[in-house]
Fold these 3 entries.
Entry 1:
Amino acid sequence: MEEKCVPYPRKGLYWLLTIPLLFVYVLIAAYLWTVGIGFFILYCLLFVFVSFFMSYVCVYWECSYVGKFAPCVGGFCLPSSQIARLWKKTKRSKRIYNLTLNLAYLSFFGIILFPVYFLFLSGFFYLLAYMGIVIIYTVLFMLLICPVCATRHVCPGGQSATALQAYINRKRDHQK
């Protein structure tokens, strides 16, 4: 991990990108409440699952953000770095890591994909707007947040962002 990345240097930019997305989550949760309490509860539980499972991943990666602000994508696992303090002294296991990582990503994609059906039912425009927000947020996050994150070398999203940035730089250098 790079020490110059701790504390995270673009915290303001992170919040500028993430707060509108958090608002979208709240709107979706409110809408799911009107559709059915079970759907609302399941959606909310996905956030809890991501936070819990990513906390073990944080410890396994020896993340330098444990107990501090962590610039995680979508704000899904902001509590993870705090929960990770509970795991800090536990023996790390590759098997448990693989399990928690897969469960975290399953929950992560659940948060993104679960509302799609309901948004489609409410109107195709809502689905398009949601997908647009998710795509724009993801691209901006990968271009602006990931490049200065201390875990970019172990995080799959950070590795993708690093590869994307290298590709963009090669294209730009080639055009000169």
Note: The first helix runs from residue 11 to 35.
Entry 2:
Amino acid sequence: MTLHRLHQPILLGDIKRIVAHVPPEILRFRAELLRTLSSEMSFVLDGGGFFCRALIGNHDSGKTMISKLLLDAGSRQACKFYVNSKMESSAYNVMIQLLRVLVPSIPCRGLSLTELVEIFLKELNGQSALITLDDVDSWLPTKNGLKLLVKLSESESQLKEGQGIYLLLTMETEEALNGLRQINPLKYAVTKLEGYSHMQLFSMLKNITEKAFYKGYVSESSLKIISKVAALNGLKQALLVLLEATRYAEAEPSTRILPRHVKKALEDSGLPLPIDSRKSRRKLVLKTLTSLLETKYEVSLKDLFKACNEALKPSLSISYAQLWRYINELGARGAITLKTISKTKGGKTMIINVTNQEKIRGAFLE
């Protein structure tokens, strides 16, 4: 069979063209959340009062994109403010940036944080305000960070009828919120953006490549590897690996982007090849089991199942059938014993005991 070579490049553009398709793909799994937050925001901006919403999520979870979309969708009558907090070193600087939208000539020093907030509220002149503070992890836990939120929340008593302030914060970790729990009463709510599952990332990457490449030029097996890279290192890094793999495919030349091209690209990037998901699940079951048994004499199958899936988030998961198969393998080796301690209509409770630590360690090495 003759293999027909391409007379045109596999890729239609470059990394910019690929990235251009990313936003709608990321938001495809956030549509319900966007609708909920949009309704909440409209209720506050149109009805009046103060409310703070905190979005927590890892890099590539879509929190910045969501915040910008909400900013665009906000009421036309409301004043809109956006501050990339990574560019600012303190809550004071953040407040200066907010105020400069209304008063460009405001001095960068000489006023207290309380005075800045008071001037800000006065300059709003009865208008509602949609305030988005992106990536607040660095300054929010500080004394002035908490003070800024307190002062903004206390402004509710000074707002005119129908005037609302909706404050949207984005952050990577929940630790930044520890100080907020001590503030009472502060009207705020937290939304955690769960990481995308392996199947969601695969679906996103498949749609992105179908738009950026000629049809069928990225093999499904290559996409599976790249989706695992995305789960471990983020979508942007995965796309960079894909672009490098494209160059290897074109250099051969090859009619498709194959796993060998992806593996070469991973080597160039200094990234490890994602291990087989079945093997990773199996080792994680062993690790979780021994970890749970460090503080207990025995552990239930239900607790092991829960702990394994918690550890596998967000890139992988394990079914009860898979866990049962791994546990039976260990039982057949004489590494563990299983016993039933109770039976109910909802099922039976199984308890695991380790009987041979050497055989457990041997299973780790396989």
Note: The chain has a mean pLDDT of 82.
Entry 3:
Amino acid sequence: MKKKMDAVTKAKLIYLIELLVIAIAFLVIGILELLAILKINTVILTIFNWLTLFGGLWLIIDFVWIMVSKKRRLKASILDKSLLLPLGIYLITFDLICLIGNIDKVSQYDVYRFGVSAVLLYVFIIYTFEAIYHWFKPIPGFIEDIQKADEEDQKAAAKKLENKEVAPEENKQEENKE
């Protein structure tokens, strides 16, 4: 008979697989972009620049927020935010150079090719590391949430079992009344 996996281990496994799948997706797209197999048109590159400009700004704000807020620090991983901080700085710099520098997206496509690939491959490295690291050192808020959900499930199962036990007794009492 198989031993049932506890909720924390199951959640850690799902999180590990999720991070690895996302990491592999970033790796594949990064390699395809680096080898110029996947060529992005100029409209998409401009949209990429604007989105990642605000995304990079958010990564920096998120890092500052976790460093300032004690409550947030207890729930999230400082390491995760620290690993993304250089990415935020890079994205803002890269996007400003591309947008303000008015880099010609057609003749200087290699700037984008290497710049975008660097981002995608860096994210692959971060997510792969986080998948392995968080298997051994889970995010504190993640474990708390899993334990709360598991306790609620156990309470619901106990209540359901209690209702099943009470129901047959009520049926016997009703039969005795007749």
Note: Helices lie at 7-34, 42-68, 70-75, 78-100, 109-136, 140-177.
